[in-house]
Amino acid sequence: MHTDVQEILFTEEEVSAKVRELGEQITRDYQGQNLLVIGILKGAAMFMGDLVKRIGMLVEMDFMAVSSYGKSSESSGVVRIIKDLDKSIEDRHVLIVEDIIDTGLTLHYLKNLLQQRNAASVKVVSLLDKPERRKVEISPDYLGFSVPDHFIVGYGLDFAERYRNLPYIGVLKPEVYQS
Ligand SMILES: O=P(O)(O)OC[C@H]1O[C@H](OP(=O)(O)OP(=O)(O)O)[C@H](O)[C@@H]1O
Ligand code: HPA
Ligand SMILES: [Mg+2]
């Protein structure tokens, strides 16, 4: 375990089993549909890569990059689009892939934006949910795990761009982000 990590919440094996389960659920629900899976960079990059391999039909992939946290451990509440989708999503069934829902501000903004672009349906899969911190009412259609109100890193999740490549999901020691 990395010395800045206080506790491992989910091991690599636990994450992998959950991703497989989510993939199977999504496969059943979207049978016969032409699904567009949209990964929200950078946090969801690993989850997206692993999840699509567990979806048992051909899907299209696209990515958006947004940022609301920057170098801080607190959301600014202002969502900036850094990279937009490549193509129109009009009349498409879209599935947003997120690593974590915290205040809910990012997802609230994204869901509204994609609905305004006249997608046929907009659903959300999030690997993690931190419900205690919610500022707007929103929940995922598919969820991996709920997490307590601590700062989480690993498997895509960062603090100031670090820790994304840890293979497990853990709690960052408070002294690391408070210093
Ligand atoms: O529910 P919220 O409070 O809005 O927080 C969740 C969002 O914050 C993180 O992204 P971040 O802005 O840190 O960008 P990143 O994915 O590049 O790390 C995370 O990946 C979610 O997209
Ligand atoms: O707990 C978190 N860890 C990393 N990134 C995040 N973005 C929102 N909440 C978190
Ligand atoms: Mg981040």
Write up this protein.
It is a single chain. The protein is of the alpha/beta class. The protein has a single domain (12-148), classed as 3-Layer(aba) Sandwich (Rossmann fold). Helix content is 25%, strand content 30%. It is built from 4 helices and 9 strands, in the order βαβαβββαββββα. The chain has helices at residues 12-29, 45-53, 105-116, 174-178; strands spanning 5-10, 35-41, 60-67, 80-83, 93-101, 121-129, 142-146, 152-153, 169-172. The strands form 2 sheets. The chain has a 6-stranded mixed beta sheet, sandwiched between helices. A 3-stranded antiparallel beta sheet has the order 1-9-8. The longest helix has 18 residues, at 12-29. The chain is globular, with a radius of gyration of 16 Å. The mean pLDDT is 95. The chain binds 1-O-pyrophosphono-5-O-phosphono-alpha-D-ribofuranose, hypoxanthine and magnesium ion. Magnesium ion binds next to loops. This is Hypoxanthine phosphoribosyltransferase. Its EC number is 2.4.2.8. Keywords: Cytoplasm, Glycosyltransferase, Magnesium, Metal-binding, Nucleotide-binding, Purine salvage, Transferase. Its cofactor is Mg(2+). It catalyses: GMP + diphosphate = guanine + 5-phospho-alpha-D-ribose 1-diphosphate; IMP + diphosphate = hypoxanthine + 5-phospho-alpha-D-ribose 1-diphosphate.
